[in-house]
């Protein structure tokens, strides 16, 4: 495996300014999406005369989504600021690893909230859990909206993970194929 040495002027030519602008746009776009997810989730509560008050903090999956959304917003701001620091831009592995971690955390919180939404919408008859959306319709609607915003945030971080992977691995040459290996494969 060979590593290509790229000087500062050549690296700017390899990574198009359009890609850098798209990267920055996705990072900055994920911030209001994460903040909106947090706001909708934290302010989500509904009172019912028969069953009582239902709040976001009654469900651990929603608390986890709020935590991950806060992490996403903070990381996106820091990464957007750091993407303009020339020293850190040359360290593509930092962005690659951190983008991967944030994307994985985001998809785990999406899965947790999807499970909660499924249970409050459909219930689990075998576990004697009835559905809650007929009694807490507004609460369910806000959970659905927060989930949609969080999925869009995940899509942003998924694309960012792909971009950072491209940047991290584009410094390597493709594997070379030995001509003797090619002749041996044909036999």
UniProtKB/TrEMBL annotation:
Its main location: membrane. InterPro entries: CASP/CASPL, CASP_dom. The keyword Transmembrane helix applies. Pfam families: CASP_dom (PF04535). It is a multi-pass membrane protein. It comes from the Eukaryota. One of its GO terms (cellular component) is plasma membrane. The chain crosses the membrane at residues 62-89, 101-120, 145-166. Residues 19-156 form the Casparian strip membrane protein domain. The keyword Cell membrane applies. It is found in: Cell membrane. Homodimer and heterodimers. Belongs to the Casparian strip membrane proteins (CASP) family. This is CASP-like protein.
